[in-house]
Every structure is written in structure tokens, then in C-alpha cells.
Design brief:
The chain is built from 13 helices and 27 strands. It is an alpha+beta fold. Strands 8, 9, 10, 11, 16, 18, 19, 20, 23 and 24 form a ten-stranded mixed sheet that branches. It has a four-stranded mixed sheet with strand order 3-2-4-5. A three-stranded antiparallel sheet has the order 1-26-27. Helix 2 packs parallel to helix 5. It is elongated, with a radius of gyration of 30 Å.
Length: 568
């Protein structure tokens, strides 16, 4: 009887211990979930990237915690505008609005992406700092594409899952993932995070009263009336669109982009200046010295423009021409395989897949089936003789294929000539109706190029940054025609949107620095979100203590169980 009672008692204790063990495991799981959820919501984290640099001007740079100048800039410049507008709305009986930062994928997808995570941290930290003024949201555009319809410049443009949208009232800016990072010309892998500058650019742009200006040149026979879809696209990209007579008008101070669409007469230059006695080439050159951009459309019918073409050649660009029976004509690109029309004069272009030019279309190329981009009645762009090719080998680790780009360095000027789109493998150039040149393995026809002039901008005594001017040339005027841009069948509208974003950048606040990934050592300090500072020695002690707790608990329980068993 006593044996049965002892056995019953042991079974009861075993059941009790099993129940306690199960409850402890459940509590641990629930506690882990609770801490994970609260940690994500409240950004409980230790940022071990504090004080990444030793230069006094950069001692507060971090990868995951916004710097004081960045937070202060938003607080001083954008937040008062939000308050002012909401006061006006309240007076009219309207609800307040906030600055919305919208990610175009589910939160888990963004969080687990190795590059998007940096952008997400910046957004969440801003939301935490200004809870009443900034909100972060997530839209799965694959499941709900109509939710971002209003952010498309035209019905044919697309929003990609890697895009980030900044919205305030009726103003918005759509940024691609590449905007937030800095890459070398010969690599697809970023070497620095430039998120704070672009966050500031976007937020200041959507909250300020004035937008940047894009000017369509109008005094060289350019078509400024028959491209309504293109002008609308430029306007919906965040610009105020104006027409400009380059000879007689001053370029507006806040003009970020000049556009010349199908010029028919030459630009004025020294030696043949008109009544205004102004060199338009000199005005254009001084404008581009300010790290701004020029977008030019030409085609197979563009006449010779000696002054403009001489200037373009300095930027590595020449319009390809050939001579047949004493008659010179622009190249006409024809592709009898990759084409949309019967005769092949509407070729389907090939995307450049590496280099600066490829970064413009990177969002488009992330799709399993990138949109077709067409160049009707196209001419070819040749690289100027003063430029020399630099060849870059394929890099399997970085995921880049072999490619080449043109380089020019003279008298302290550095320029790079890059492809954005090329003719296909079966493309040929015709002159006077006869085949004049064909594509070879090492020579494809350039259909769209972008040339950059690199400039070093000294921002502080300790820090300088690379900035650049852009010259983009598209070898087809019908590329931006109303018929093409309003069709969902082609990706031309997406290309132009991406190009406008790349060329027409907002002026970046000088006090915000890029944050390089080059320093991988643990910093002397780490800051816990919320203000707690822990020294390196304290951090080590804390880590050892937290790691020892489970072992000490298990050790104590083991001794207790052993003693209980021995004396029972």
C-alpha cells in the first residue's frame, strides 16, 4: 500500500513538473513573441555602428540611427510646414494630414531585404521621432496594384515593389531603391548608404510650396506642342514645366533640367551670335557646371547642328552618319528580328545590364519579363574619338556581366559615357536606304546614352563628396510620342520616369553625409534606441551577463533535482 502511495506521489510530481515545464516553454515563447513585436514596433535595438568615423565632422554617422543634423533638418524645415497646412485645414473643417512614407511590399519582405532594411530603419526612426507628423505604411502592390494607381505619372508607368513613395497631400515623389545608395561605375554592389539626403530631398520637396523647374527649349524649332503626354509625365514627376528661349531668357534659378526635343536649328555660339549677342552654348555649359542636367532627343532626320554637335562631342556624343554616293545621312537603325513593325524600323532595344546607365532601369529589369522598350525611326549615337573604352570583367559574386564604358580625362575634367539601351544582335544601320553597318560582337549601336561629368564638392573641412552633371541623349524622337507613352505595351514611359528621377535630382542638403559600409569594426560606443548609452566594456559585461543567465538557471535546477532525487 505504501509502495502504491509512493508511486502515486512520484507520478503526481512528474506530472506537476511536466506541467511546469510546458508552462515555462509557453511563457518563454509568448514572451519572445511579445518582445519581438514590441521591439519592432518601438525599435528596441542596440546600434553598434555609432561613431563609425574618426573625423570630427563625421563622428555621429550611423547606419541605423538617424543623425542629429538630419532629424533637426526635418524638424526645422518640414514639420512647421505640416503644422501650418493642418492649421489651415482645421480652419476649413478638414482633417489633418501627415507625411506618408509608403513601401510597396509587405513589411516582412522589406525587413528581410538586405538593402531595403536600411531605408526602412530610417523611415521608422523618423516616424518614432515625429509621430504626429510622419507615418510609415506598407502596400503589397502585387496583391493590390490599384492602391498605387494615383502615384503613376501616366497610365503606362509602373510602380515596382522596391519603390518608396513620399506623399503629403496632393504632392508625392516616387523613389527607386537605387536612389538611396552609392555605387561605383563598375559595380552593381553599393558601397555607401545615402538615405538621409534622399529622405530629406523627398520630404522637403513634398512639403514645400515650390517645386523644381524643368524647361523645354523652344527657340530651335523644337516640338513643344505635340508631346502632351511627355510634358504631363515631367509635370507629374514633381516639376513645374516651362518653355524657355535659351537665347533671350535667363535659365530659372531653380531649374534642374533642360530638355531639347527634336531641335531643327543650331544653337548660337561665339562667332555666330544673333541679335541678342548671346552664346547659347556658353549658357548651356555654365548651367551644366552647376551639377544640373540636359536631356536631348534626336532621330534619323535630325539636321546637322554644328555648334551643338561640337559641344556634344566634348561630352562623348556624336550623331552617327554615313555617306553613300556623296550624300551624307544620319544612320537609320533597322532590326528585322527584334521589331514591332513589318519592316523593322521600330526596333526593340536591349537593356544595358551594368554600369551607371543600367542603374536607371534597374527596377524595370528586376521583373521576370522586363517591359519592351522601342525606338521608332531611331538613329545611332557614336562615342567621340577623344573617349577611350574601359572594360570591366564579369563579377559572379556581385552578379554583374562584363561591360564597357567610355572615359575622358583632360584638364581636370572627368567624364564617363554609359549605355542605357543598345540595338539588338541583329540590328543594322542604313544610310540612303542601303545597309551601311551591322552589329558585331564587340560593337552594338548606342540608342540611349548618359554621360556624367564628375565633380568634387567640398562640403566641410573634413568631407568632400562626388557630385555630377548629366547629359542624356535618346536617339529617337518618337520614343516620347503620345502614342508610345500612353500605351501599356511598352516600357518607354517607365524609362523616362526613371531618367527624370536620375537627372533632375533635388538639391541635397550639404550637411548630410553619405555613410560608407567600409568600417566593420565594433564601435567604442553603442546606443540603445531611447537614449541609453553603453560603453564598450559595459556592453561586453552586459553580453556576458545575459549569456550566463540561462546557464546559471539550468545549473541551479540541475543541482536541485539531483539533491531531491538523492534524498527522496
Amino acid at each position: 500500500m505504501k509502495h502504491i502511495e509512493n508511486r502515486s506521489g512520484r507520478l503526481g510530481r512528474r506530472a506537476l513538473f511536466s506541467l511546469i515545464t510546458a508552462l515555462v516553454l509557453v511563457c518563454v515563447i509568448l514572451l519572445n513573441l511579445l518582445v519581438s513585436v514590441l521591439g519592432q514596433e518601438n525599435l528596441w535595438q542596440i546600434d553598434e555602428t555609432v561613431n563609425r568615423y574618426t573625423n570630427p565632422s563625421m563622428k555621429h554617422l550611423t547606419l541605423y540611427t538617424p543623425t542629429e543634423p538630419f532629424v533637426k533638418l526635418i524638424g526645422d524645415s518640414a514639420i512647421p510646414m505640416v503644422d501650418q497646412i493642418n492649421e489651415d485645414r482645421a480652419a476649413n473643417g478638414e482633417d489633418p494630414i501627415t507625411i506618408n512614407i509608403i513601401f510597396c511590399a509587405d513589411r516582412d519582405v522589406v525587413w528581410n531585404h538586405d538593402q531595403m532594411r536600411y531605408v526602412l530603419y530610417t523611415a521608422l526612426q523618423l516616424e518614432k521621432e515625429y509621430k504626429q507628423h510622419i507615418s510609415v505604411s506598407f502596400i503589397n502592390i502585387n496583391k493590390n496594384p490599384s492602391a498605387v494607381q494615383k502615384y503613376k505619372a501616366t497610365s503606362a508607368t509602373r510602380i515596382y515593389s522596391s519603390n518608396v513613395i513620399f506623399e503629403f497631400g496632393t504632392e508625392y515623389r516616387v523613389y527607386s531603391l537605387n536612389n538611396f545608395f552609392v555605387k561605383n561605375e563598375n559595380s552593381a554592389t553599393p558601397w555607401a548608404y545615402n538615405g538621409e539626403k534622399h529622405f530629406a530631398n523627398a520630404i522637403l520637396a513634398v512639403t514645400r510650396a515650390e517645386s523644381p523647374v524643368a524647361c523645354f527649349l523652344s527657340n530651335h524649332g523644337e516640338n513643344v506642342e505635340g508631346i502632351s503626354a511627355f510634358r504631363e509625365l515631367v509635370e507629374k514627376s514633381g516639376y513645374i514645366v516651362q518653355d524657355l528661349n535659351l537665347e533671350t531668357d535667363n535659365i530659372p534659378e531653380n531649374c534642374r533640367l533642360l530638355i531639347s526635343y527634336d531641335p531643327q536649328t543650331d544653337f548660337r555660339a561665339f562667332g555666330n551670335m544673333g541679335e541678342a549677342e548671346v552664346s547659347e552654348i556658353d549658357k548651356l555649359d555654365k548651367y551644366l557646371d552647376g551639377c544640373f542636367s540636359f536631356l536631348l532627343f534626336v532621330d534619323n532626320k535630325t539636321p546637322e547642328l554644328p555648334n551643338l554637335e561640337e559641344y556634344l562631342e566634348e561630352w562623348g556624343v556624336t550623331i552617327a552618319r554615313g555617306t553613300v554616293d556623296g550624300k551624307e545621312e544620319n544612320y537609320t537603325i533597322r532590326d528585322t528580328v527584334e521589331k514591332l513593325d513589318k519592316d523593322g524600323y521600330t526596333p526593340i532595344a536591349t537593356y544595358a545590364t551594368a554600369g551607371l546607365g543600367a542603374s536607371i532601369t534597374s527596377d524595370m529589369r528586376e521583373n521576370a519579363y522586363p517591359a519592351k522598350v522601342i525606338f521608332p525611326q531611331a538613329t545611332a549615337i557614336s562615342m567621340a574619338h577623344a573617349y577611350k573604352y574601359t572594360y570591366v570583367a564579369a563579377d559572379e559574386t556581385a552578379g554583374t556581366s562584363a561591360y564597357r564604358f567610355g572615359t575622358y580625362y583632360r584638364n581636370g575634367i572627368t567624364r564617363y559615357f554609359n549605355d542605357v539601351f543598345l540595338g539588338g544582335a541583329n540590328a543594322a544601320a542604313e544610310v540612303c536606304g542601303q545597309q551601311y553597318e551591322i552589329t558585331t560582337e564587340n560593337n552594338s549601336f548606342h540608342l540611349m546614352t548618359v554621360t556624367t561629368e564628375e565633380r568634387v564638392v567640398q562640403e566641410t573641412n573634413y568631407f568632400s563628396q562626388q557630385d555630377r552633371s548629366f547629359l542624356a541623349v535618346i536617339g529617337s524622337t518618337e520614343f516620347a510620342s503620345d502614342q508610345v507613352l500612353t500605351s501599356d505595351a511598352y516600357g518607354n514611359a517607365d524609362v523616362l520616369m526613371a531618367t527624370l528621377r536620375a537627372l533632375g535630382r533635388e538639391v541635397a542638403p550639404a550637411e548630410l553625409d553619405i555613410i560608407a559600409f567600409k568600417n566593420y569594426t565594433m564601435d567604442l560606443e553603442a546606443s540603445l534606441a531611447g537614449g541609453l548609452m553603453v560603453t564598450n566594456s559595459g556592453l561586453i559585461t552586459t553580453c556576458v551577463f545575459l549569456a550566463a543567465i540561462p546557464a546559471l538557471i539550468c545549473f541551479g535546477l540541475g543541482i536541485y533535482v539531483t539533491v531531491r532525487r538523492k534524498y527522496k
